[in-house]
Amino acid sequence: MTEYHRKLALIHGLAFVLLFATWLAGISIAPHAGTPLVALYYVLHIFPASVIFVLILLQWQISSQKPPKDNPDANSYGQWNGFVHQLYDAILAALPITGILIFYEPKALVATPGLATGWLTQMLHDRFFHHIHAWLFNLLLALVVINAVLLLAVGRKRPDQT
Questions:
Q1: What is the pLDDT of residues 106-139, one digit of tens each?
Q2: Distance CA 74, CA 88 (A)
Q3: What is the tens place of the pLDDT at every residue in 4-21?
Q4: How far apart are CA 91 and CA 73, in angstroms?
Q5: In terms of DSSP H, where are the helices of the chain?
Q6: pTM (2 decimals)?
Q7: 67: which of 59, 92, 111, 135 is 20 to 30 A away, CA to CA?
Q8: How many CB atoms are closer than 10 A to CB 29?
Q9: HSE on the CB side for 54, CA within 13 Å?
Q10: Burial group, residue 133, by CB count within 10 angstroms (0-12, 13-18, 19+)
């Protein structure tokens, strides 16, 4: 394993640990609602998520400073990977916004018994931003899995490797 691959593995490993900690604390919040432990889980959910958000902002700042590449990667996986990482960043930037909006949306409306049959009706009579927040995170996880499978299938090498 080259130095480049070690650094890449470390960065992706740290990102995974932060995302996993955020997810684990997030799913632990609801069962402890109304107890003092909920505050602990909120801190454990919001802190790693905030670190990820700040790192995304720093990455955007750094990438905006470098000149564009003269020769874009001709490899179709490289183009897909670049697109998917931009999508990761956009989702990771939207997640804190939807997370904050959860606190400002009204409590779930009481649905009429015959009304809550479809998922859209249920969502509209439930906490809308809570669903959006969860869907964005699930989309992020799905993209990570798809990208990992494609990476393993393609076995992409860096252009500077032989």
A1: 665 555 555 555 555 555 666 778 888 889 988 9
A2: 21
A3: 778 877 888 888 888 888
A4: 24
A5: 3-29, 37-65, 76-104, 119-124, 128-154
A6: 0.70
A7: 92
A8: 16
A9: 7
A10: buried
